[in-house]
Amino acid sequence: MITAEIKINGMLLYHVYCTNSSKVSIADANDDRYHYEYEVYEIGKGKVHSGKLVHNRNGGGAKLISDILKNYYEA
C-alpha cells in the first residue's frame, strides 16, 4: 500500500490511497508490472474517485502517484 497527501501552502487538498491487486500475467519475467487500485479523496468537498491502473514498479512511487493524479484529472 502507498499513501500520499497533496498539500499547497500547507493546506491539505487530497489523500491518495493505492494498493496493488495483482501482478500482470505476462511471459517476460523481467517485466515488473502490477495492477493497482486507488482512491483519491478530495478534502473539503467529500468527493471520492476510485480507479485502476497498471504500473511498472521500477518506475517508483512518485511515478505511480503522478499517474493516479493524471487519471483523476482526466476523469
What does this structure look like?
The protein has 75 residues and is α+β, with helices and mostly antiparallel strands. It has one domain (2-74). The chain is 19% helix and 53% strand. The protein has one helix and four strands. Strands 1-2-3-4 form a four-stranded antiparallel beta sheet, with helices on one face. The protein is elongated. It starts with a strand and ends with a helix.
Quick rundown:
The protein has one helix spanning about 60-75; strands at about 1-10, 10-25, 35-40, 45-55.
Secondary structure layout:
Elements lengths: L1 E7 L2 E13 L9 E10 L4 E10 L4 H14 L1
Antiparallel strand pairs: 1-2, 2-3, 3-4
Mean pLDDT: 89
Structural class: alpha+beta
Q: What is the overall number of helices?
A: 1
Within the largest sheet, what's the order of strands? 1-2-3-4
